[in-house]
Amino acid sequence: MSHMSTQCRVALFNFITHINKLAEIVRTMLKFKDHKLEYFILIIGLIFIHAFLMCNAFDGKSINSENANQFGSFIGGYVGSIFTLFSIFLLIITLRDQARNNFENNFLELVKFHRENVDKMEIKQHRSLKVFVMYTREFRKLLTIVKEVAKAHNLYFNSLENKRTILNITYLSFFFGTGPNSSRVLQKYLKDVDEKLIDNLISKMNSSKEEYKKSFGYTPFEGHQSRLGHYFRHLYHTVNFVHNSNYSQEKKRELLKILRSQLTNHEQAILYFNSLSSVGKDWDNKNLIRDYKLIKNLPEGFIDEEREINPKLIYDFLYEYEE
C-alpha cells in the first residue's frame, strides 16, 4: 500500500508539472488577441476536467488495489473529455475565423462598391475622379459668393464660429443648389440664418450660373444631392460598418486605412467640407474622421487656412505631411 501511495504521489507530481507547463503554453497563446475567447474557454474547461484531482481519492492515501483496477476505465473517460474539449475549442476558432473572413470580405465588397460609385459619377464631360476636382472648384467659387453676401449682412469670415457658419451655408448651397424645389429645401435647412441673407444668396447664385457655365463646362450652383447624397450614404455606411464591429480599435483603423487609400485628395477635401455642415454632422459627432483619420492624406496647404479652415483646427491628428 505504501509503495502504491508513493507511486500515486509521483504520478500526481508529474501530472501537476505537466499541467503547469500547459498553463504556461496557454498564457503564451493568450497573447494572440484574435482568439482570447477560445483560449479562455480552453483554460476553464481544463480546470473543470482536472478538478477531481482535488478529491481525497487522489491524495495518495485512499487509492487501493480495487480502485487501481478501475483506473483504466477512468483514464478513458478522462482522455475523452480532453479530446472533446479540444474539439469544441477548435470548432469555436473555426467558426470565429469564418465569421471574421466573411466580415472582411463584406467590407472589401463595400470598398469595391465605393469605387464603382465614383466611376459612375459624371457631370457633362467630367467623369469619375475628375468630378471631385470640379466639386472642389465649384465649392470654392461658391464660398467666395457666400462671403460676399454674408459681409453685406455683417457676417464676417473672422472667428472660428463665423467661419463654420459660412462654410455650412456654402456646403448646403453647393449640395442643394437653387431651383424651384432646391431653393425651398435650402431655405429650410438654413432657417436659423438671416432670411434676407439667404434670399440674397439664392438670387446671387441664380444670376451667376450663366457667368460661370463656360468655365465649369456645366451649369454650376444647381446642386449635387442626387450624386453626393448616394456617395456619402454609402461611404458613411462603410465606415460605420467597421466602427460598429467587435474588432479592436487598431484592427478597425487597419481596415479603414484601406478605404482611405481609395479616397483622392479632392474626395477627402469634399468629405472634410461635408463634415463641417449640418448634413454631415455625424462624421464629427461620432468622431469617425478623428478616430480613423479619414482625411489624413490631405496635402499641406490643400485646404487654404486663410480662405477656409485649416483641418488641423478641427481634426487635430498627425497628417501625412507631418510624418
From TrEMBL:
UniProt keyword annotation of Membrane present: yes
Superkingdom per UniProt: Bacteria
Residues annotated as transmembrane: 37-54, 74-95
Pfam families (UniProt xref): putAbiC
Keywords, sorted A to Z: Membrane, Transmembrane, Transmembrane helix
InterPro entries assigned: PutAbiC (IPR031709)
Name recorded for this polypeptide: Phage abortive infection protein
Lineage: Bacteria, Pseudomonadati, Bacteroidota, Flavobacteriia, Flavobacteriales
